[in-house]
Amino acid sequence: MSVPRARLLQLMEARCKLFETTFNPEGIRAGNKILRQRLKGPALAGYYPRRIWTMQEFQSEFRDLHLMVDDEKELDRFEHVSLLKQRGKGAPKKKNSAPDFKKGKK
């Protein structure tokens, strides 16, 4: 003796209401498992330290006082780029303008 499908669906629906789960008799993927999980954003945001000022922000903030502040990382980068250019390993020059493509000529 088997139970009709309609009765099984009614029982499943009642069980879902009782235990506050989603009623999904077709078994379609809905993402409920992932949506029930705790959010990871606050934990990830708390992992990284708070951002401190960059040298550019520091210089722009105290520009009114006419303080000379050297950004050592930036100076090292400029020195490295100039050494690369001397050896011919620097970035290529930018184009001045795009070539003119006229009808029939490429």
UniProtKB/TrEMBL annotation:
It holds the Pfam family MRP-S33. Belongs to the mitochondrion-specific ribosomal protein mS33 family. Keywords: Mitochondrion, Ribonucleoprotein, Ribosomal protein. It comes from Triangularia verruculosa. This is Small ribosomal subunit protein mS33. Residues 86-96 have a biased composition (Basic residues). The keyword Mitochondrion applies. Its main location: mitochondrion. It is found in: Mitochondrion. InterPro entries: Ribosomal_mS33. Residues 86-106 are annotated as: Disordered. One of its GO terms (cellular component) is ribonucleoprotein complex. It comes from the Eukaryota.
